Amino acid sequence: MSSIAEQIADRIGVMPASERRAAQTLIANYPLIGLKTVADFSAAAGVSSPTILRFVARLGFQNYPEFQAALQDELAAQLQSPLYRAEHPSTVAASESSPTVCAIVENIGETFRHLSGKQIAQLATLLTSQKSKVFLVGGRFTDPIARYMAAHLAIVRPNVFHLAGQESMWRDRLIDMGKRDVLLIFDIRRYQESLLRFAEKAHQRGVQIVLFTDQWLSPIARFARHVVAGRTAVPSAWDSSAALFVVAETLISELTLQLEKDSERRIREMEKLR
């Protein structure tokens, strides 16, 4: 079942301007603003209460309480720890010989059902400017994706930096970040507070943030210019980052294509230096 954030991503292109403001307000404060009253939600979005109800109806809910119940279910899922998932394993069909593999394949399909080729191309275009710097960072389990992607991007374009080590070391790099630059952040549940603090400071400096997260959305979404929500849940105590790895590889491929001449030249020169 699609999360409310995914439903918004699918429908926001056809929403009237007032409903888009409601959608953007919800995403920026996901999911907590939706758990408040209609009056509070409308005030935060700067739209009327009937607009909020039309927005909720456009997402397929019969009424506001039904919408809030769905958000509450998502919030409960978002807060699940590995211990909880180990003690409450998901039920799967008995005929499935490898339910985790099946879930991973489904996650990849669902992720790309909500992420179009056009969006991938737009993200790649954001990374093409040779004058900008690109920084990548991830959380406890997602930083390997950031490091993997940085290693590839550094081959096809200059000024790519993976932020490793402690949070204090990340903050030291803020001095090198400005409005031309792009920060790619990977953060899935349970969301990392240090990444949120870092994203807020980068946002204050005008850095363009691209967030790679799960279907429940990291709080960093409120600071992000672009949000890519990958499916991560599997019948395990642990979430799977496989879909986000595939997104990273797809973006690497698209960027290499867009920078075809430059990337080919850089790769040729690198081979001569080996």
Question: What can you tell me about this protein's structure?
Answer:
It contains 13 helices and 5 strands. It is globular. Helix content is 54%, strand content 9%. It has a 5-stranded parallel β-sheet, sandwiched between helices. It folds into 2 domains: 4-78, Winged helix-like DNA-binding domain superfamily/Winged helix DNA-binding domain (Arc Repressor Mutant, subunit A), CATH 1.10.10; 109-273, Glucose-6-phosphate isomerase like protein, domain 1 (Rossmann fold, 3-Layer(aba) Sandwich), CATH 3.40.50.10490.
The CATH architecture of the largest domain can be named as 3-Layer(aba) Sandwich
Distance between the termini: 49 Å
Number of helices: 13
Number of domains: 2
Could you estimate the helical fraction of the residues in percent? 40-55%
How confident is the prediction overall: mean pLDDT? 89
Q: What is the N-to-C order of secondary-structure elements (H for helix, E for strand)?
A: HHHHHHHHEHEHEHEEHH
Query: Can you say what the CATH homologous superfamily of the largest domain is?
Result: Glucose-6-phosphate isomerase like protein, domain 1
Determine Rg (CA atoms, Å).
Answer: 20 Å
Structural class: alpha/beta
Proportion of residues in β-strands = 5-15%
CATH topology of the largest domain: Rossmann fold
| The first-level CATH class name of the largest domain | Alpha Beta
Uncertain residue segments:
none
Major sheet = 5 strands, parallel
Q: Which geometry do the CA atoms define? A: globular
* Sheet with the most strands: spatial strand order: 2-1-3-4-5
Let me know the number of strands. Answer: 5
